[in-house]
Design a protein that fits this description.
The chain is an alpha+beta fold. Helix content is 34%, strand content 39%. The protein contains 3 helices and 3 strands. A 3-stranded mixed beta sheet has the order 1-2-3. The longest helix is centred in the middle third of the chain and has 17 residues, at 52-68. The mean pLDDT is 95.
Length: 95
């Protein structure tokens, strides 16, 4: 999903290179029948480092990319019906 979100931002001319976009991913695993583990939820927190002026200019575009990238992501399309995947974003502003 990170790659799909990275491409969605890149086409909107938002820098995503080394250190600009990082994903923190947490999975919730449950013990199912016969002690078999099952992933039921994946939470992705994107951390985007961006200049404040660019953020102000591109905020709506970033929101659209965040809200729609999963519909273009092969991973989400493959497992999204069996595992709940949520995404959110946190910003760090450059001086």
């Amino acid at each position: 999903m990170l790659g799909t979100f990275r491409r969605a931002l890149a086409v909107r001319e938002i820098p995503t290179g080394r250190g600009y976009l990082i994903a923190d991913v947490k999975g919730e695993v449950f013990n199912e029948k016969n002690n078999v583990l099952k992933i039921k939820n994946i939470k992705i927190l994107y951390n985007l480092t961006i200049e404040k002026d660019l953020y102000d200019e591109k905020k709506e575009a970033i929101d659209r990319a965040l809200n729609h990238h999963s519909s273009q992501c092969p991973v989400h399309l493959s497992i999204g019906d069996s595992i709940n995947i949520t995404t959110d974003i946190k910003y760090k502003f450059l001086d």
